[in-house]
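Forwarding the complex inputs:
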Amino acid sequence: MPTTPCAEAICVGTELLLGDILNSNAQFLARQLAELGIPHFFQTVVGDNRDRLREAISTAAARSNLLIFTGGLGPTPDDLTVETIAAAFNAPLIEQPDAVADIERKLAQRGRPMTASNRKQALIPQGATLLPNPIGTAPGIIWEPRPGVTILTFPGVPSEMKAMWRETAVPYLRDRGWSQGTIYSRTLRFWGIGESTLAEKVAAFLDHQNPTVAPYAGRGEVKLRISARAATEADAIAAIEPVERQLRHLGGRDYYGCDRDTLATVVGKLLSDRRETVAAAESCTAGGLGAMFTEVPGSSRYFLGGVMSYSNESKVTLLGVLPETLEKFGAVSAETACEMAQGARDRLGSDWGLSITGIAGPGGGTADKPIGLVYVGLAGPDGRVESQQFRFGSQRERDWIRAVSACTALDVLRRRLLDERDRDRP
Amino acid sequence: MPTTPCAEAICVGTELLLGDILNSNAQFLARQLAELGIPHFFQTVVGDNRDRLREAISTAAARSNLLIFTGGLGPTPDDLTVETIAAAFNAPLIEQPDAVADIERKLAQRGRPMTASNRKQALIPQGATLLPNPIGTAPGIIWEPRPGVTILTFPGVPSEMKAMWRETAVPYLRDRGWSQGTIYSRTLRFWGIGESTLAEKVAAFLDHQNPTVAPYAGRGEVKLRISARAATEADAIAAIEPVERQLRHLGGRDYYGCDRDTLATVVGKLLSDRRETVAAAESCTAGGLGAMFTEVPGSSRYFLGGVMSYSNESKVTLLGVLPETLEKFGAVSAETACEMAQGARDRLGSDWGLSITGIAGPGGGTADKPIGLVYVGLAGPDGRVESQQFRFGSQRERDWIRAVSACTALDVLRRRLLDERDRDRP
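Prediction (whole assembly, two chains):
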């Protein structure tokens, strides 16, 4: 094992370069390497072509010392990974009797004969060790073709690759000392603040070396990822915690949760803690908010249901919005949002009623009420009903506006529930 | 334009190397390059690190002549793509007044101030052209830093990257002669048939060379992708069409659409053609079906709205399901599905009422009514109400069951609308 491990994933397959499949193997390997604490600085994707694969191997061997290949181990003539690796390091290919027997047995199980193409899969470079495949016919290899370069190969089929990685590669890498310590990360999630504003608030942390803090922006959401490298996971967590506390403090109410939390799980927890229930009234999102609430297992404890009032008539008949309100202020207005929220609370008999009405586009925008104008209404247990206006920008796409509107409604309820919680506290 | 175009996608972002996100941008670019007929031989992923990004740039510039960068255009200090590219080709960075104004305008729309970090996004290498970002604040660049090397940069946010690619990069590449010939693909979509069954039905086509036919399986959906390589798109389409006709014929009613069609757009088209309307009643999906219907712009013509009856009470009060029905048959039953569909049709005054009730898990399954058991109810304009039972398998995850349930409800309505259409034809 070299003093500074440095892994590179090399994913082989023309189907990746044609965009036929998503490279989920690269993501899997990336996560696994992070967990093992093995630095991983490059990924390369190359097609089923001997010359270009060879070029990718030289480039990788010059800058990385752990080369992890996926793909190109199949029986067909365009599966070139092992023979090209062997050629790159001037090693002859040797047939492995164990591998031949294993392939023969697996094919027999499926009622298939051994063919010359299958037999090709039993060829490995001289000096390499078999990396057994518990599922498919293609074995991998573990090989140190020259000091300072270690090669592992895996099939492209994700289930086979993952099984081989976990069963053989992880123990091998740990035994050989590749995995020194671990990289542990925690992601803090924020809603209602822009990436650059948050980055400036926490600017002092962005130059930290260990743990590092990095901002990411998603769909309306901003995340700060804290990553620590340490000997053990417990040490890494201990290094993360003081930073996390300070970042959460700086984020204030815009901080809503961490790691696998979502706005829906956080709101669900707040509602459950208060033993309160909610109902939804949705116009432009038409079910998007309800679907978010109920992504969470057990959400039936606090989410009673709601109304998708996509037409004006349904706002009147199912929610009791007054026809005069629709006529005077329009379906996209603070007044309609309030009556929708009130209607959902009344009709469902919930503690809270949460409504959304807006213009998701691409049609329907006017100078007065542009695409991206959204009202969120909230009716509460104390009888108070209020609404907030949001302008998400008329250049946004329909999907984006709908998803961000539903999250924003959850966030409106979240902030209100936090206010209530703080007020109730002695 | 060099005589032999050769593109390389360079995706920049430590989050990719940590496995936090799946590299869907690489797949998008791969497909787009294939459609333009631009050979694409390598993809590189590199982190937010100046030295390694520079190393990736040199490697790419030595083997490829069209370098397409995604990521690292944000306002924060770890966004290094443009400055590192400029440094790699020894060019100074120049602030673009147009870009400053555009960023200022976009931030103002969202009620946010212009910060020094945002201003950084307006710096581009001397000699480069702005590649405008219609959505976000980060512009890209188009730059030929030396003869034989063309560089395009895009933000990592997929919606922004795709909009910029389609609006600016594609016309630019076509104008400059990068796109020679084309690979054109059409994806045929099937619902209600398994991948292996469909593959066996169309086995004779899977060995074709040009066009090629390849099966893919998604969430409950199966696709056949037909790809033809030809001098022009028209030639490729001409090669695809006879194959497409035969595959559609073999697929029968399980074939529902092609390319960007979804079950929701296809059902929407059938309803619009008949000038009929639909309302939804959703239990376990709680808005998922409504959200699918209304993903389609203009869906208010035929989708009136509906009820998310997540609780039993709401099934009674909002849909008129009889308490006796719930007591005798349970909420997940053919009888309840029928009364929900009827209730949605009655309350919303639509031609069709479509309902879903089922057990999405992870809790709530019994031996009698296991996880994955779902009923779809359909009430039609002729007063007929019927339901169908589906068993999606108790090993499936909640998300999968909910998404496939909503699609299945759309498919039930699709088949019925096709029956009606065929019956109405002379």
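Chain B has a mean pLDDT of 93.
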